[in-house]
Amino acid sequence: MSMAVNLAALSRLRDAMRMAEADVMLVDSGELLAWLTGFTVSETMYRACLVPLSGEPWMVLRKLDEAPCRQSSWLRDVVTYDDAENPRKCVAQSLISRGYSDCRLGVDTRSYGMTADTWQQISEHLPEAVWRPMPGVSDSLRQVKFPYELDLLQEAAHIADTAFLTLKEQVKAGWRVRDIAALAAQIFLSEGADTGETGPVVRSTGDSGFLHAQTHEDIIQNGDILHVELIPKVKHYSARLMRPFIPGGISPEQQHIARQLIALQDAQIAAMKPGAKARDVDAILRNAVLAAGLRADYGNVTGYALGLYTRTPRPSDFSHCFTPAADWRLEENMVFHMYTSAAGLAFSETVVVRPEGGIRMSRLPREVMEI
């Protein structure tokens, strides 16, 4: 991360702090830590970055993690503790030692790091502090992407494209689903992805239940539908892409359903312009799918926020998603995973919001992958 990016991210956060009347912000969401500092680590033991309205932020974390933090981050002030110490007490003591014992302390009350136990312990060790809730700030600050973030998402989308085209060339009827996923994972790693985590690769039936299935032992036969969702990450930034694979050829009925889904989703993506209301964008696809009789009901979202994912309890960001109740508005350079499914067929795209409408980051053809 360049210094210009660091300052821009810090400026966004401090603007939010001023709105919340916070003197110091406690950052403990893994994604916000990575976005702000360039470094993130799991919550094996509690860790946090403390950001004052003026002056230099500092990190509090395990001594074991100090070296990688200094290597990856622009932060110079790093406070460490031994594994036998109480991490939350160390966070409180770092504030006290810098003169913030009675500060107005900003905290994202929706952060998975800010558990009731964490709040209680820090409160006990910092009794004079006044808490300033900033619910959802860890997600909202990151929705409009910087240019470097778009570049990383584009790299991830290219890896997904490469993997899909390789699967189309090599996969045949008779393959185990596990072996198909293993091939995708191999391509991810060889092409520069952070990990080999593929996303769901499963035999599909129904309208949406297969999207989160986890079975890898099935053997794909002619006439089956193989659902493939690939989610490669580059420096934590994940592009996502779904396509159905059908060995032995697609039936006329399946082709008819696929073309309808793709056309309706294309119309939805075209409407993804700055200022558009999310529920209106959602309705373009949802209402048309139901009206066409492609599904009897449509309970799931039609898209959700994409960007930076770390080792967290949350594999997807639903802070901004497309539903009939979504009243937020799109902004330029927001990025979303837009998806639709019916009759075992699912299509999705990584889409960036532009003035002319949504732009796909993938270059993969919008079609069923026949193998």
Automatic annotation (TrEMBL):
Alphabetized SUPFAM superfamilies for the sequence: Creatinase/aminopeptidase (SSF55920), Creatinase/prolidase N-terminal domain (SSF53092)
Pfam families referenced in this protein's UniProt entry, alphabetically: Creatinase_N, Peptidase_M24
Claim: Transmembrane is one of the keywords in the record: no
Segments forming domain Creatinase N-terminal: 10-144
Residue ranges of every copy of the Peptidase M24 domain listed in the record: 152-353
InterPro entries (UniProt xref): Creatin/AminoP/Spt16_N (IPR029149), Creatinase/aminopeptidase-like (IPR036005), Creatinase_N (IPR000587), Pept_M24 (IPR000994), Peptidase_M24B (IPR050659)
Molecular function as annotated in GO: aminopeptidase activity
Record keywords: Aminopeptidase, Hydrolase, Protease
Coiled-coil segments on the chain, per record: none
Name used for this protein in its record: Xaa-Pro aminopeptidase
Species of provenance: Rahnella aquatilis (strain ATCC 33071 / DSM 4594 / JCM 1683 / NBRC 105701 / NCIMB 13365 / CIP 78.65)
